[in-house]
Structures are given as structure tokens and as C-alpha cells.
Structure prediction request, 599 residues.
Amino acid sequence: MNKITYLDGARLHRALVAGANNVLSRQDYLNKINVFPVPDGDTGTNMAFTLNSILDSTSKKVHARVDDMLALIADAALDGARGNSGVILAQFFQGLSDGAAGVEKMTPESFAKAVKFGAEYAREALAEPQEGTILTVLTDFSNRLIELIQTNNHDFEQLIEMGINEAEKSLENTPNLLAVLKKAGVVDAGAQGFVDFLHGIFSFIKNGDLKGFKTDLASKQINVDMDNNGTDFENSEFRYCTECIIKGDKIIHKDLRESLLTNGNSLVIAGSKKKAKVHIHVNDPSEVFKICTDFGTVTGEKADDMWQQQEAAQSHKTNGVAIVTDSGADIPDDIDLNIFVVPVRYNFGNVGYIDKVSQTPEEFFQELETNPNHPQTSQPTPGDFRRQYQFLKSHYDSIISIHIPHELSGTYQSALNAAKRVDKENITVIDGLSASGGLGLIVMKAASLSNEGKSLEEINALLPGIISSTKVFLAIKDLKYVVRGGRLPAWVKSVADFLNIRPVLSTKDNGTLGAAGILLGTENLPQKLCKFVLAKMDKETNYTVIVGHSNTLNDGKKLFDLLQRENDKIKNIYLIDMGCALGVHAGPGSLVTAIQPLS
Prediction:
């Protein structure tokens, strides 16, 4: 058999595809053994998402030179990196790329040198490196490759095989280095993912055939003791896994690390002086994004609720239906229905925010009044939904994803595109045909049905009736915001102001937003909207109601009290802050009421 003595860009890419495919096939297993740094069950999802970003970016652009190929891979990994393990992996690729600078074809010697760069870069990316993790396995694998090269091993197949043997030993030893792993009876999930990646590469180098590629790694049967691993989610110090990308002329990682370190833990900074990826666990994501703006332009803001993820991972739920929505649904804070929300993003000028995470609704409306830049909203990307779906697939049998109308936003289409790539059979994406509290009520009802043990098919059968019977009514106090947002011509505002009238807006059967009626004057808005809503309610029917306000709490309370007093058929009623998805057009001072018949 001929020895493989070099890797060019094309061979390297094919090897990477094989390694990535192996990790993708194992992501559920990796999620299940994920107990460090937080037992939130998403290591497999994050590594898979990071590697998928590389595959997507390189599928139609393969360079002949190794250094050009690695530069493309490193940049794609940085853009797509998610979670602690994903960002560490991205920094490994950055080191691999820098270590192969000027290399046209990679020999075993230059490969070992580049891997050493990658291992060192990955370690340097962490503020507090922890042994017994992927870092340890990277270091041991890299050191073994250097030893082999020094003993004149010049065959890639032998080099990788013997390197993997060392990585396997290192992986098996991780529980001896990290007590939380020993308590749970597992190896480190990130380290396992890296070893799986190496096995995929070795399979390609050995067989040279991607079409017939299959992993021969058996998924071990595991029983992780989540109740005895010492990291109960209720005691987690920090709630949000927060990430962003910084682009600048000269990003000094040391200064960035020092600025962020006191805000949380699990800090990882990957990338270069011109482009950096920040990962940190915090309670206040907005503070992280503000600090990062001092170092360059911030994009790709993300903040995952680890407490909710940990609850899902530790619940051992089977045959369950996960309910997903977007932040266009306004849901009461005190509702415990385990609804998974993919947030809308928005920006005031160059400053970006995550809806309901990096700004409270009160802060949003205050800035809406004072900032000369009208906010621009952006729907969640298909990638945002894909990562959420991939995570939930490890913990639920099926998913129902209900969203703001396609007539008002591209969010529904993003979710639909993501579902097609993840699992067409077990993910149902539904146009909620409502917004704000109306969408909130629909999603809450779906989650209640799931908690009652209803199946995917049963909930899907009931949802059309739930959606059509749920109504939402919005009274806008000042029309200037809907004009600024481009949803209303300025002349309509002029006429409405002259006649002293205000429209009551509602979503129609097709999801468009239109006038449902008119209120005379802007004074006593709670009383006027209450009278309007009561006229829309059947006197013999029991209702659940959501009252929302846009930074006008006293008016919200008045409307809440009036509805309760005037209609004893309202059995459940909630007072909430209106979110930015509708609030960006409604503006401060507006009120919304959603009603849903009780079945």
C-alpha cells in the first residue's frame, strides 16, 4: 500500500468533511454526556453547528493550497462557532491556519507543527484553562505527533492512527482530572467530540472514500447521574451563554479579556487582531456587548438561556413535544411552560440588541423615545433556528414551532428553512397569524397541551382552531413611530391627528395587520380600549386574556383592572410588557389586549 506523504488543499478538505460528518452523526450522544462547564446538554449541537458552518462555507470553494484552505476554514469556524466547545474548536483551526502559513502541501512534519500551533492557540483562548477537557486531549494529541515526527514517522496514516491512540488514552483519563466528570460517570463531551473528529479524518485517510463513509464508533449506552454531579442548574451562578463577533483594526485580546473577565466565567476569546469571537457566561449580556463595542464593530450577538437548557437536559423527558416560538410572542414572565424562544434582533444605529435579553422592554421604549436612530429589526436566521432545533432533538421526540405571521416578518420562513435541514418529519412550523399577546396565548396553549401529554399529531390538529379563535387588539397612542418604521404613510398620521382618532389594529385571518376599529381621541385610552374589547367578547364564554403596555404601566394596570371588573368570564388574565417586535411600530404609551376562549 502506498504511503500518504502529503495533504493538499483538496485532500485536507475531504478529510475535514469526513471528520465533521462523524461529529454530526454523534451530536445526540455528545449532548447527553455534556456536564461541563455547565450540564446544559448542548455540546454536540454546538460542535455540529460550528463544523456545519465550515462545510457550508467550503462546499463550493476548495483551494488547491493548504494555507489558503485553512484560512477559509478558520474564518468560517469563527463565524459559526457556538458554545464553549465550538469557540475552542474555532481557535484550534485559527492556530492550525497560522501554523501552516506559506505551506502549499502539508507534509507529516508541517501537519504536526500546525496541530501544535492549534493546541497552543486553543489553550491561550481561555481565561482559565481547565485540565480534563478538550484542551488536555488537544495538547496530548499534539505532543504525540511531535514525538512521532522526531522518530522519523513520515506516513500520514500511521501518524494519525498513533496520534488517535494517544488522544483516546487522554480522553479516558479526563474523569480523573475533572471531578464533575467522575461523579457523572462520563468523559468530557468536548474532548469526545474532538476524538470523534479525528476518527472521521482517519477513516478518510485510510479508505479515501467519502461516499462510503460510515463511523465505526459505537455510541456507548450511558446513564449520566445528573442529580449527583454537583452542578444543579438551579445553583448555576450565570444564566446566559453570551457570544458575539468583533471586527476591528487592532483587537488586543489581552485587553479585551481583562475588560470582560469580571463579568462572568467560561470566557473564551478566539480569532485574530482583526476579527474575534467572544464567548462568556454572564447574567447581563448587554454589558458584554457594550464592552465589546470599545474594541470594534459588534455583530452576531447571541445569548442562550442556560438555565432553561439545563432544565430540558436534566428532565429526562421522553415522547415529549417541544414548543418553540420567536420573541414576537409576548409571554408572561411567571408562566412555567418551558417554551423555547428564539429572539429577534434589532439595532439602534450601530448598536445591536437581542430582544428581551440585552435590553428590557422598559429600556427599549426609553431608547425609542430618545435615540434619533429608529431601530431596525432583523428576524432570526435559519441558523438560529437550526441550532435550537438540533439541541431540542436530543431531548424531545418532536417540535412544534409557532411564529409571527409571514406577512409581517421573514421569521416563519427562516424557521421553515431550518426545519427542512434538521428533521422534516418531526418538526412542524406553523404561522401563528398573530402577534404580541395574541401569539403568546397561542404558544401558551400549545405548551399546555404538550405538558398534558398530547402528541405532535393531536396538538397540530387542535392548533388551527386555537389560532383562529385568538384575537389581538392594539391601540396606538402616537402614530409617529409606525410612520418612522415605514408601516404608515405620514399623511395618514396627519389626518388621524387632525380628526383626533386612533385606529385599533388587529391581525387578520391571513396574518396581515389592519384596522379593526377606531377610538375617538387619545385621552382615557384604557377605558376606550376596554369598551372596544368587551364588545368583541362573547358574554357566555370564558376567556384567558393578556394585557400588554409599552412603557405605560399605570395605563396597563387600569386596563387590566377594568377588564377584570367588567367581565367575570375572564378566568385568567396577565399583565405584560410589550416586546420590541410590535413595540417598534406601536411606540411608547400604546396598549394591546389579546383574548382567547377557554376550551
